[in-house]
Amino acid sequence: MRFRDRRQAGRKLAERLREPPRGERLRNPVVLALPRGGAPVADEVAQALQVPLDVLVARKIGAPFNPELGVGALAGDDPPLYDEGALALLDLTPAQLAPRAREERTELRRREQLYRRGRPSADLRDRTVIVVDDGLATGVTARAALRSVRHREPARVILAVPVCSREAAAAVRPEVDDLVCLDQPDPFQAVGLWYEDFAQVRDDEVIDVLRASLVPR
């Protein structure tokens, strides 16, 4: 399955989320976007469900020789989460990645301030939280985000993505009450291959999405 763009993917996700019996279990829901790529997807989901939208900033920790190769991730105030298998395969340690983790923590804080503009984060206690991204390759960033959400005492956590690898699906399932993934192609290769338009989402687009959304409560 290929999607035209992130917004079409978001509309398809919303359709799946509303199907019974899943749709009947969405008690006091809130949608959390993983920016930047997850923002337009999550916007469509939140609009279709008519629920509040907020962001959850998570940052990938890349390998020293290839920043795009995620071997760990950060979210919220939690310590870094590392993919132990990837570290062993690449002969890396958390200590070696500490400088990179500090850089990503600084960037995480910058983006939180940029996107929120002083607005408080949504209260997740006793709510159904739907975490949305545009796709999962390894799942390590989503896992860090989901663990951060759990610490905020939601009633239920759903991860909703248009496309993901089978390996990522297996990695995130223990972190959620429900995983909604429209397609798990094999071979997977990269998220962008499953979109006709996978243009980079800019910071100002994320800000515009949040500005126009329902205010978290």
Automatic annotation (TrEMBL):
Q: Name one Pfam family in it.
A: Pribosyltran
> What Gene3D superfamilies has UniProt attached to this entry?
3.40.50.2020, PRTase-like
Q: Which UniProt keywords apply?
A: Glycosyltransferase, Transferase
One MF term in GO for this entry? glycosyltransferase activity
Q: Which domain of life is it from?
A: Bacteria
Q: Does the keyword Cytoplasm apply?
A: no
Presence of keyword Glycosyltransferase: yes
Q: Where is this region: Disordered?
A: 1-21
Q: Which named protein is this?
A: Phosphoribosyltransferase
Which lineage ranks, top first, belong to the organism behind this chain? Bacteria, Bacillati, Actinomycetota, Actinomycetes, Kitasatosporales
